[in-house]
Design goal:
- The two termini are 24 Å apart.
- The protein has a single domain (49-181), classed as Rossmann fold (3-Layer(aba) Sandwich).
- The longest helix is centred in the first third of the chain and has 15 residues, at 42-56.
- The protein has 183 residues and is α/β, with parallel strands linked by helices.
- Strands 7-6-5-8-9-10 form a six-stranded mixed sheet, with helices on both faces. Strands 1-4 form a two-stranded antiparallel sheet.
- It contains seven helices and ten strands.
- The radius of gyration is 16 Å and the shape is globular.
- It catalyses: orotidine 5'-phosphate + diphosphate = orotate + 5-phospho-alpha-D-ribose 1-diphosphate.
C-alpha cells in the first residue's frame, strides 16, 4: 500500500463523518472532515508531512510552511520535519486567530525564522470556501511574508479552489472529496 493509500484509509477511518454539521463558513453540510483526527494520529501525521512535503518540494523558492492555528499546526510541523529529513529544511510557523494577549502581542509564532520576504506556503486541513485560507494568506502578507500558494489535506470541492485562484494563488489538495468518498 502506498503512503497515499494509507493516508486515505486513515482519513476515512478517523476524519470523515456522515452527519449534519455547521462548517466554519457558516454553511450546513451533511458530511464532515475533521482533519485534526488524522494529522494528530502518529502514522497519519507522518504521512501528512511526507505528502505535503512532496506537494511543495519542487515549488521554486519555498522556505517555510504554516497557517492558522489549530488545523495547520500539526501539518506545518510534520511537513517541516519531513523536509528536514530530506535535507531541505523548511521552517514551520503558526498564525494566531488573534494577537497574543501578553508579551509581544504577536500574530505569528516562529517569527525569528522568517525574515521579511520569506517565501511561504499556507497549509490547511480542509478547504471549503477558501475563506480561512485567504485569512491566513492576508495575515502572512501583513507580516511581511511572500505567499506562494496553499496546500490542503482535503478540498471539499465547494468553491474554495475557485475563490483562492480568483485571488491569484494556487491550491494543491492532497485529496478532494471526490477522491475520498465519491461525488
Amino acid at each position: 500500500m502506498t503512503d497515499r493509500e494509507k493516508l486515505k484509509a486513515i482519513i476515512l477511518e478517523l476524519s470523515y463523518e456522515k452527519r449534519l454539521v455547521t462548517l466554519a463558513s457558516g454553511r450546513q453540510s451533511d458530511f464532515y472532515f475533521d482533519g485534526k483526527q488524522t494529522t494528530l494520529h502518529s502514522e497519519g501525521g507522518l504521512l501528512t508531512g511526507k505528502l505535503f512535503y512532496e506537494a511543495i518540494k519542487d515549488v521554486p523558492g519555498v522556505q517555510a510552511v504554516g497557517g492558522i492555528t489549530l488545523g495547520a499546526d500539526p501539518i506545518a510541523t510534520a511537513t517541516s520535519i519531513a523536509a528536514c529529513l530530506d535535507g531541505n529544511p523548511l521552517h514551520a510557523f503558526i498564525i494566531r486567530k488573534e494577537p497574543k494577549g501578553h508579551g509581544t502581542g504577536q500574530w505569528l509564532e516562529g517569527r525569528k525564522n522568517l525574515p521579511a520576504g520569506t517565501k511561504v506556503v499556507i497549509v490547511e486541513d480542509v478547504v471549503t470556501t477558501g475563506g480561512s485560507s485567504m485569512k491566513a494568506v492576508n495575515r502572512a502578507k501583513e507580516e511581511g511574508l511572500d505567499v506562494l500558494g496553499i496546500v490542503s489535506l482535503v478540498d471539499r470541492e465547494e468553491g474554495g479552489r475557485e475563490n483562492i485562484e480568483a485571488e491569484g494563488y494556487w491550491l494543491k489538495a492532497i485529496f478532494t472529496k471526490s477522491q475520498l468518498v465519491g461525488a
